[in-house]
């Protein structure tokens, strides 16, 4: 078993622990009414997108998500939350350094014994969700679970659904597809983006992601009988029929959307195995991006 396989199968237990710890981090996570930005790089950026959409749709306050390298320093925020598994990513540390003394910052990390300890004002530590694999799985979803629980939006079915996602076979013919398209709405757009990234990282697949309603505005033109189109959450009316009309394989997300992401992680590993690739060693990638100044 690869590191990434081992780590992705541990997600139900990690989510349970994170949800139980959310109340203990209430003072360092965004309070209702605060204007908040959530930042990250790569996978963490996509989790930031999901968390920001969840918080704002829940009426907790204006919430934006940015890649750490693209943060708009001219905007006023009450708190900036940085997601960083390693605690060493250059763009995140640069951002936290520039905000020091000007904006309250919280870092959610797997490794507090890193420069992020002093870079951020506050820490939420998920060390039990740290990973050996370059490809992120359990830290990302566990960080999002912490934020969902903090918002009161972590359903009891999420962990059960994650176990189902790990136990049930993948849909027949899915691994053999040549192209993968992931769709989302609202907070699940971030999950769709992350599913596409997992497929590219782990299996070098042609993978894309779009807001579901945008899929019809051009991207559906490249859909063929070798495409799998996977919906996270409820699909817009008529979209499933339109996709099936192209000959593509339509995958409806029947589980909690975060559990659907676990299924997509499994798919990435399965496609990598079918292509003779090692998902623990994705091409050109390292566990943390540390840039020379």
Automatic annotation (TrEMBL):
The keyword Repeat applies. CDD domains: SIS_GlmS_GlmD_1, SIS_GlmS_GlmD_2. InterPro entries: GlmS/AgaS_SIS, GlmS/FrlB_SIS, SIS_dom, SIS_dom_sf. Keywords: Isomerase, Repeat. GO terms for biological process: carbohydrate derivative metabolic process. Residues 25-168 form the SIS domain. GO terms for molecular function: carbohydrate derivative binding; isomerase activity. The keyword Protease does not apply. PANTHER family: GLUCOSAMINE--FRUCTOSE-6-PHOSPHATE AMINOTRANSFERASE, ISOMERIZING. This is Sugar isomerase.
């Amino acid at each position: 078993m690869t590191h990434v396989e081992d780590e992705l199968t541990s997600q139900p237990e990690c989510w349970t622990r994170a949800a139980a710890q959310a109340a203990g981090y209430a003072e360092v996570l965004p309070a209702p009414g605060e204007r908040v930005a959530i930042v990250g790089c790569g996978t963490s950026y996509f989790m930031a997108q999901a968390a920001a959409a969840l918080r704002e749709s829940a009426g907790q306050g204006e919430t934006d998500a940015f890649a750490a390298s693209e943060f708009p320093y001219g905007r006023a925020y009450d708190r900036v939350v940085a997601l960083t598994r390693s605690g060493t990513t250059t763009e995140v540390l640069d951002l936290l350094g520039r905000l020091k003394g000007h904006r309250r910052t919280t870092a959610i990390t797997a490794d507090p014994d890193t420069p992020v300890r002093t870079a951020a004002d506050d820490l939420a530590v998920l060390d039990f969700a740290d990973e050996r694999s370059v490809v992120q799985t359990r830290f990302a979803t566990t960080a999002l679970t912490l934020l969902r629980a903090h918002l009161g939006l972590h359903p009891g079915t999420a962990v059960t659904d994650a176990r189902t996602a790990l136990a049930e076979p993948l849909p027949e013919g899915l691994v053999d597809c040549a192209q993968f398209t992931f769709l989302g709405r609202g907070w699940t757009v971030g999950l769709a983006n992350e599913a596409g990234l997992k497929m590219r990282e782990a299996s070098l697949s042609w993978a894309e992601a779009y807001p579901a309603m945008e899929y019809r505005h051009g991207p559906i033109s490249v859909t063929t009988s070798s495409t799998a189109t996977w919906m996270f959450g409820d699909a817009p009316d008529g979209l499933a029929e339109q996709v099936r009309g192209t000959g593509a394989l339509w995958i409806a997300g029947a589980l909690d959307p975060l559990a659907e992401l676990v299924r997509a992680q499994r798919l990435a590993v399965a496609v990598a195995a079918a292509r003779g690739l090692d998902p623990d060693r994705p091409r050109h990638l390292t566990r943390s991006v540390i840039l020379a100044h």
